[in-house]
Amino acid sequence: MAEHNEIGKIGENIAKTFLMKHGFSVIETNYRTHYGEIDIVAKKDNKIRFVEVKSVKVKNFLNIEKLHVKPEDNLTKNKWSKLIVSSETYLRHKNINKMKWQLDLACIYVNTGTREGKVVFLENIHKE
Predict the structure, then answer these.
(1) What percent of the chain has pLDDT above 70?
(2) Could you tell me the pTM of the whole model?
(3) Number of domains within the chain
(4) Residue ranges making up the domain that contains 80
(5) Would you state the pLDDT for residue 114?
(6) Separation of alpha carbons 39 and 27, rounded Å
(7) CA 25 to chain centre
(8) What CATH number does the domain containing 29 carry?
(9) Of the ranges 20-29, 36-45, 59-68, which one carries the lowest mean pLDDT score?
């Protein structure tokens, strides 16, 4: 497995654990549509939460605010568009038409030495 794929998998596992510790019910992971993939589908406060996970590797958690490339920088306009369409597709496929939903972004800083992560969770980056 390529290193960036491994970092992504570690980041998704860290995000999933983070969500469960914060009262989310994880419904599905890596839900694929024709348009793209939703990393995590969860539910909290009677709302569907589509969570995009973006991870970067770091040597330690000091000075992460000074990094040149942050996880959220990797959420491109193209990926954003695919995420919205994939979320709407998920709702149609699952026949969920009355429930509120939102997009969240889990920014994961992965220490490759310890395989630990720091999570910065950005809620409600787009809502319907």
Answers:
(1) 95
(2) 0.91
(3) 1
(4) 3-127
(5) 82
(6) 11
(7) 14
(8) 3.40.1350.10
(9) 59-68
Q: Which residue has the higher pLDDT, 40 or 7?
A: 40
Q: Which residue has the tokens 């997009």?
A: 103
- Which H or E run includes 120? strand 116-127
CB atoms within 10 A of CB 38: 23
> Token pair of 125, please?
């980056």
Task: Convert 5-67 into a string of H (helix), E (strand) and C (coil).
Answer: HHHHHHHHHHHHHHHHHCCCEEEEEEEECCCCEEEEEEEECCEEEEEEEEEEEECCCCCHHHC
Query: Tokens 């996970």 appear where?
Result: 53
Confidence of residue 4 (pLDDT cuts 50, 70, 90): low
First and final C-alpha spacing in the chain? 36
3: pLDDT confidence band, cut at 50, 70 and 90? low
